[in-house]
Amino acid sequence: MNWAWFHKLGAPKWFFHYSKPWALPLFIVGCVSLVVGLIWGLAFAPADYQQGNSFRIIYIHVPVAMLAQSCYLALGVSGLVFLIWQMKIAPIFIKAVAPIGAVMALMALVSGAIWGKPTWGTWWVWDARLTSVLVLFLLYMGIIALQNSLTDLLLANKAVAVLSVVGLLNLPIIKYSVEWWNTLHQGATFTLTEKPAMPMEMWFPLLFSTIGLYCLVAGLALWRMQTEILAREHRSHWVKEEVMKHGL
Amino acid sequence: MAFDSLTDFFEMGRHGVYVWSVYGFSVVSLIFITWSTLSKRRHVQKTLRKRFKRDETI
User: Fold this and answer.
1) Which residues pair with A23 in a beta bridge?
2) Residues of B in contact with A226 (CB under 8 A)
């Protein structure tokens, strides 16, 4: 098998040029799909027979919770890739995506707490699911803090990669927390691989908002990576050409 | 439409305050992360541009 593409992908210059045209379209498609999903879910999906209208929080809560975990999975895998192959793009990815993941985890916690009040009668309980997602948020904050506190770039790359990999342990705990322990939190109701556990007119808006948020985050991640590449490679000739040619 | 009137839509059977505060917080969060992404991008490009221009004049 020819691995040339793999090595090229890891080269910041190559990555910059090939990812450049994708950021804006991904971001726009993501925004449109998200807005469609949210308006559909807010105004047109039928109310839940048990929860009434508070269930409409699902159209925010489930996508952001999925993104919070997906971003961390990607962070952990990048950490491994960096520690094993020293691929230059991996720490750039971690630095770019950690703040997005932190915002997603915070949104999952806040939307969950606000949803918990009318549904469970409480904003917060220290059970396995809620606590493990709080740990996920703190891991993101730890990665961001570690990144910012180390001015030596080589050291920062390595330290942040190690922390990202260690934090992977938390992901199976989040996923299985609703099965291993007694919890107020319900099991997963949204999967792409099985028959939906909800009627189609509730499921479709959720599909739109989830796919929309994935695209939006992908667009943001590419922009952030491109910015970081320019900053890190500023001594290269191609960066000078790029910046002087296209300007802002 | 799942609601009979606009008031109905905003009140959401007494769940309005929960639903709307989640949507409000989320929109603000997404705008914040987008704004911070784009302003960082502008800042880096501006700084590099200035530096390259200065280097040329030396």
Assistant:
1) none
2) 41
